Amino acid sequence: MSSKRQSIVPRVQSGPKAPVNFSSSIIIADSALLTGNHTINISSESVVHPRAKLDSSNGRITIGRRCIIHERTSIGALSLDPRPSESRDGVVISDYATIEVGAVLESGGTMIGEGCLVGVGCRVGKGAKLGKHCTLTPQSVISPGEIVPDFTVVYSNGTRRADKRGVADLKNRAQARQIEVLRRLIPSNPAKFQQ
Predict the structure, then answer these.
(1) Neighbour-count burial for 19-51, b at 16+ CB within 10 Å, e otherwise
(2) Average pLDDT in the chain
């Protein structure tokens, strides 16, 4: 009997290896899962944590500069909404966005604005559009096709308010510092995903 602990998480069946277009300065963990038929684009200084799942089976995925994609996120998930999507893009995540642990971004024209924070366990439906610097608190749900205005805070009970703190520049600088720390902590292996 081995003394090594075994994971209780079931093994994920991987689909086809996705075509990728990476910047040379990204940080992507070896255990991230990238699958699908469409291109996955990741811009400079972005971070993809271990066990994050990017699935381009339902459309292209584009991740902007200095984004952080946390573990166990699912980007490009198949939508629960049966209506066909009008967009060829699956998911577009703009610069300085953070997608936290266990969040799900459905594929089908979904847009995450610059500087957005998608909290732990959130679900963003296909075709939803978040404006700049929006904050989704943990377990929030954005319906398919919904448009959230710039600087909006969405709470898990559906309540919303405008964020008038004016800290967008401070958040961007803090994000850049956090990425520098993650660069030292996460072993990166982008070559594994390139064909």
Answers:
(1) bbebeebbbbbeebbbbbebebbbbebbbbbeb
(2) 89
Q: 74-115, pLDDT tens digit by residue?
A: 999 988 777 776 666 789 999 999 999 999 999 989 999 999
Cα–Cα distance measured from residue 47 to residue 133, given in angstroms and rounded to the nearest whole number: 19
Identity (one letter) of the amino acid at 72?
R
Q: pLDDT tens digits, residue range 14-32?
A: 567 888 999 889 999 999 9
SS3 of residue 174 by DSSP: helix
Closest CA to 50 of 66, 78, 27, 67: 27
H helices of the chain, in order, are 168-185
56 has pLDDT over 70: yes
CB-side neighbour CA atoms (13 Å) of 131? 11
Percentage above 70 pLDDT, the chain:
89
Give Cα 94 distance to the centre of its chain.
10
Residues 6+ apart with CB under 8 A from 113: 94, 97, 129, 130, 131, 132, 133, 134, 150
How far apart CA 71 and CA 189 sit, in angstroms, is 16
